[in-house]
Amino acid sequence: MSKFGKMKESSRESMSAVSLSALNDAGLSPREVDSAFYSNAFGITEKQLHIGPLINTSLGIPEKPSIAIESACSSSSAAMHEAYIHIASGADDICLVAGGEKLSHLSTMEATSYFAMGSDYAYEAINGVTFPGLYAAIAVAHMNKYGTTQKMLASVAIKNHENALSNPHAHLHRKLTEEAYLESPVVAYPFRLYDCCPFSDGSSAVVLASEEKARELKDELVEVAASERAGSVATLQERKDITGIDGAELAGRKAFRKAKISPSEIDVAEVHDCFTIAEIIATEDLGFFKKGKGGEAAIQGETALGGSLPVNTSGGLKAKGHPVSATGAAQLHELYEQLLQKSGNRQVEGAEYGLAHNVGATGGSCTVHILKRRR
Amino acid sequence: MSGQNTGGHGGRIEVYRCADCGSVMATFTVVCHSCMSARIEKAALGGSGRVQTFTILSVPSEAFADEAPYAYVIVRLHEGCTVSGWMRGVGSPAELAIGDEVEYSGMRGQASVFKKKVSGG
Questions:
Q1: Domain match, A251 and A211 both
Q2: Where are the domains of chain B?
Q3: Is residue A178 situated within a structural domain?
Q4: Beta strands A268-270 and A353-360, pairing class
């Protein structure tokens, strides 16, 4: 993956570079790729659609099939799922997945307007709500129903900023104190600036191979033990309960069933923390903590490094950054390094199982992957 | 064109009603979410309801750039479905709470404007 933050390159250049680097790491030439799956949801802001053939051409494989997959903030985990299906079906042996985004050429207002297009525009954005506003409405409901506090929200941000300090790829390398959090400007009540992920540029890539092919390539492997997707009503107002995301709950249940493990067996998790409340509800939806107890778990350090379940060791979307289409693949990159014990200061010792939870918009699309260390 | 409030119903909120089971749905649909019937009719609502959740936007969206702070509300209408709304001039959480009674008061652009219900009204 690239360093997240502000990049000079276009998505096309950055995604090509990380793709080649991922293939090199796997010991492969681009020529060995059977199919490529790319995500670049906001490519239109760079006046470019149909990025697949451009990247394939830059990799020297213009003849290979490619497809671009858009699923808002869960685009590259959706692309990963499609690649998984291609390999599981026997159609392909080797698939390349890459996601990338460039947003820094947009003003905050422009970027906010593009992000709002991922909501139900004609019902939500038309009434003046922004993306932070929608998650803020979820937070207000969660605080009202379960007593979740502003300090619990702050604890998520502080932890993820701390984790990002030891991630060289992270966008924000800035220690956050509770005082600085509370002094930051209000964006959408109850969210302050530090409840929100930054607008980031960046790219990430994953190479997926059949078991037979993978064994020829490497001794240390990470297996995709489950790749599951599900959906929710896109429009918040139509949901029976907005203090959780039912699609994420469903994708999680399907993934645990497929991997034949329970939530307590996960050693490290990367969850979709576009806003602080999103990490809290993710840890509840996935069954790591009881409904309504995610905030308490966060403030007590259960989700910090050294806690019962380290969450977002990478710094999460909150501090590692959130280049929309790069996020899903970047979560998998973090788990890959964790499971191969390559995470340096943020290593979760002896991690065997990792889970990635990636959500599109306010949960209309949800992907859960479970990765397992193989020796 | 579909949307919560396109102005086509005398400024009232447009919803979808199942001709078979009577369910009312606030967002565009071609089937009933309760009975899967495809006999969907358009209807218009304009009543009052209770705030289910809300936020107060200090950083506004582009179309409301001159109006911040304001509230975005999700309102459970007494007529039986849940809609989105916009409330002018709400600047702090002390001014609005979940469960508050609000009433529909027309459009601003294509937004559905709600106001706090005056008690006894």
A1: no
A2: 13-45, 48-116
A3: yes
A4: parallel
The H-or-E segment that residue B113 falls in is: strand B111-116
The SS3 call for residue B49 is strand
Q: Do B70 and A128 touch (CB under 8 A)?
A: yes
At residue A165, the 3 state secondary structure works out as coil
Quote the minimal CA–CA distance from A142 to chain B in Å.
Answer: 9
pLDDT digit string (tens) for chain A, length 375 residues: 999 999 999 999 999 999 999 999 999 999 999 999 999 999 999 999 999 999 999 999 999 999 999 999 999 999 999 999 999 999 999 999 999 999 999 998 899 889 888 889 999 999 999 999 999 999 999 999 999 999 999 999 999 999 999 999 999 999 999 999 999 999 999 999 999 999 999 999 999 999 999 999 999 999 999 999 999 999 999 999 999 999 999 999 999 999 999 999 999 999 999 999 999 999 999 999 999 999 999 999 999 999 999 999 999 999 999 999 999 999 999 999 999 999 999 999 999 999 999 999 999 999 999 999 997
Distance from CA of A189 to the nearest CA of B (A): 5
Q: What is the 3-state secondary structure (H, E, C) of A298-355?
A: HHCCCCCCCCCCCECCCCHHHHCCECHHHHHHHHHHHHHHHHCCCCHHHCCCCCCEEE
Enumerate the residues of chain B whose CB falls inside 8 A of the CB of residue A126.
3-5, 63, 84, 109-111
Find out whether A237 and A252 touch, Cβ atoms under 8 Å. no
For chain A, how many structural domains are there in total? 2
**A208 and A267 share a domain?**
no
Q: What is the CA radius of gyration of chain B?
A: 15
B48-116 is a CATH 1.10.150 domain: no
Contact (Cβ atoms closer than 8 angstroms) between residue B29 and residue B41:
no
Determine which of A113, A115, A129, A196 to mutate to test the interface with B (most B C-beta atoms within 10 Å): A129
Quick check: B27 and A120 CB within 8 A? yes
User: Domain containing A96: what range?
Assistant: 11-105+201-216
Q: Is residue A111 part of a domain?
A: no
For B77, nearest residue in chain A (alpha carbons): A237
Query: Does the beta-carbon distance from A242 to B74 stay under 8 Å?
Result: yes
User: Quick one: A149 and A210 in the same domain?
Assistant: no
Predicted ipTM of the assembly: 0.95
Query: Domain of A76: which CATH number?
Result: 3.40.47.10
